[in-house]
Amino acid sequence: MGARWASRDGDRRIGRRALLVGGAAVAAGTAVLARDELSGLWWRAPGVAKPRKEGEVDYAGARWVAASDSNWRRADRPDDYGIDMVIVHVTQGSFAGAVRAFQNPAHQAATHYIVGRDGRVTQMIRELDVAYHAGNRSYNERSIGIEHEGFVDRPEDFTDAMYAASARLTAGICARYDIPVDREHIIGHVEVPGTDHTDPGPHWDWDRYLRLVRRAATKPA
Prior knowledge:
The protein has helices at residues 11-18, 24-27, 35-39, 95-103, 137-142, 160-177, 206-218, and strands at residues 62-64, 72-73, 85-90, 113-115, 121-123, 130-131, 143-148, 186-188. It is of the alpha/beta class. The two termini are 30 Å apart. It catalyses: Hydrolyzes the link between N-acetylmuramoyl residues and L-amino acid residues in certain cell-wall glycopeptides.
């Protein structure tokens, strides 16, 4: 997430441009939305609603707490947008603080998951939906975002329990979407083009993390 908790990006433009759909501007042919943007608006059409169960999670070890719907965009991934990436974030704050921020509609950002120092996992957005977390619309559409409780300049925040829980979570995501377990597909927020964030920072042990993800992937479910 980074120090300023700011991840607004082009996803917000979809909401504003969607107001033109069904209006006089469309009838007159003066507004044109790209095909990929229109595909993301399927759920706005009358009578179309993908069945969802309240409180359902994608990762069995997670507890569900819903983010504000101002902080994500409803989608039908991977059918409308393929998922090929996991993005690692650090909250720059507490677990509870991250949950509160993602429940706040004014925050305008959230990740799919938060992992605590103690290894607990909370899911706040369904994987099939697009979370506003990367600060880059294309990366948001193709990725799952995972926050980790702590601060980038405090290596002690990255506990054994956190690494293990996050690795199990990421291994499951990679298995569901056939994502390679490597540094091209599991990246830090700092590596997203156009971002000004620095997380997960220099103390995040990527070699250790990828080893744990690979190990978790080989264990029976």
